[in-house]
Structure formats: structure tokens, C-alpha cells
Amino acid sequence: MKKPSYWLIDAGNTRLKAAYYQGNALVDEIAVDSLEALEGRLNGWPSPRAGLLSNVGAWDFEGVPARFGGHWLSLTSDTPLPIRVAYKSPETLGNDRRALAVAGATFYPGRPVLVIDLGTCITYDVVDAEGTYLGGAISPGLQMRLRAMHHFTSALPLATLPPAEEVMQTKELIPGASTEASLQQGALEGWRGEIRHFREAYRARYPGMVTVVTGGDVERLAHLPKSSIFARPKFMLSGLKSILDYNIL
To answer: In what order do the strands lie in the sheet with 113-118?
Structure first.
């Protein structure tokens, strides 16, 4: 018997991502720049039994449930979650952080978890061993650091990051021999050092903590100890799927 289909739509400020599951198995995922392109791609997927909309942008999804059918859930601060949320302003908590916290508690029950999402911003999200989301921190990501140094000065250029493969092959820290190299090194090593600091500080407070790193810049994160660190590129999708399951099953 064919397993039912479930759809997840993650709408950011500029891009739309969608994933299609059969049961608990991820079958396909897409990323597009417009609602028209998204709907065109969704036409090729089996009709969903249920779907989840996570919309942090200004996208109008009113026609999607009617067009494709199924039971749809829109993720908001009022959506029931399989974890307790101790955040003091839940209405301001981003859906991405909400989903990452759920994924952390789902994958590592009974253990404290730190989820680090390396995107436009870095987000640090902490779930305790009892499955309570405590909050965390937000700071500038790699590209934002480079752009800020260019934007807020009159002379510094807008540096670009070297390829991830080159970054990972660097075994020792050599002083930047040009302004661009100095900017690259300042952004990258400051970013890495911050991540190490947060991990060590949270682990000191919550012994036995598991660290999960995810997001588009994971490939540039080198030289962290491997013990209790797991790289999971599709971690937010897993959290969104867990939220959908919790509300429909």
C-alpha cells in the first residue's frame, strides 16, 4: 500500500523551499524564487494528505490549499508543538528557530541540544534535557560580516569568501597579506571563534549537550572537535515534518 504524501513549504524573505515526503521518507525538495514557479513544480507531486506552511515573508498562499487539496496547517506562534516553549516573546520567535528546536528535541530526546544554524544570520537555539526550548542567540553570518565592514567604512572593499574547498584545506592560520585577505580572515575566523565560544559556554552550563550544525555555511566550519557534534543539512525540514505529524497524527 502506497504511503500518504505530505508537503512542507518554507517561505523565506526572498526564496521558497518545498519538500515532499511519503510517510517519513523525504522524496523530493525544491527551491524557487516565485510563487508561480513553486506552483508549477508542485504540479508534479502527488496530492498531499496534509501540508505545512511556514511563511516568514509576504507571500500569499491563499490559493495553494484549494488548488492542491489536503489538510493544511499554517505555522504560527499559536501552533501546538511537541516541546514546551519557555521563550518570553513567542510571538517574535522565527519559524526557523521553532522548527530547529523541535528537530533537536525529536532527534535527541533526554539530552540537552544546541542547534546552530549557519545562514544569513547565525542562530543558536538551546533545548534542555526535558524537551523545553530555552532560547539562544542571534548574530551576523559570514556574508553579513563582510558587507557590514564595507558598508560602514569609506575605504574597505566588499570582499568575497574563498571557495569552501579552499577554506577547508587551510591547516594553519596565516596572516592575510592583502586587504581582501584580511577581511576574509577576520570574518571567517571571527565567525568560527564565536561558534566555538557559544558551544563551550552552553556545554559548561548543560553537561552532556549535543551540538547540531546546519545551514548553508556548514561546509566552511572547520577545526571543531568531532565529539558530540553532528552536521545535519536538512535539520529544519525534519523539525517542520515533526510539527506537522504532531498536529495531524
So the answer is: 84-85, 132-140, 121-127, 113-118, 210-214, 229-231
- Of 74, 102, 135, the domain-final residue: 74
Cβ atoms 127, 112 nearer than 8 A = yes
Query: The domain spanning residue 31 has which CATH number?
Result: 3.30.420.40
Q: Which of 20-24, 136-140, 160-164, 170-174 has the lowest mean pLDDT?
A: 170-174
Q: Residue 52: beta bridge partners?
A: 8, 73
Residue 211, classified by CB atoms within 10 Å of its CB into exposed (0-12), middle (13-18) or buried (19+), is buried
Across 197-205, average pLDDT: 95
Q: What is the Cα gyration radius of the chain? A: 20
State the Cα–Cα distance between residues 167 and 218, nearest whole angstrom: 12
d(CA 12, CA 156) in angstroms, rounded, equals 30
Nearest alpha carbon to residue 122 among 9, 16, 220, 17: 220
96 classed as catalytic: yes
Domain, as residue range, for 128: 81-236
Task: Give 116's strand partners.
Answer: 124, 213
Q: Indicate if 161 and 58 belong to the same structural domain.
A: no
Distance CA 9, CA 113 (A): 25
The pTM (predicted TM-score) of the whole model is: 0.90
- Looking at the domain assignment, is residue 142 inside a domain? yes
Write the DSSP assignment of 185-213 as a string of letters.
Answer: HHHHHHHHHHHHHHHHHHHHHSTT-EEEE
Catalytic member of 28, 78, 96, 217: 96
d(Cα 170, Cα 189) in Å, to the nearest integer? 12
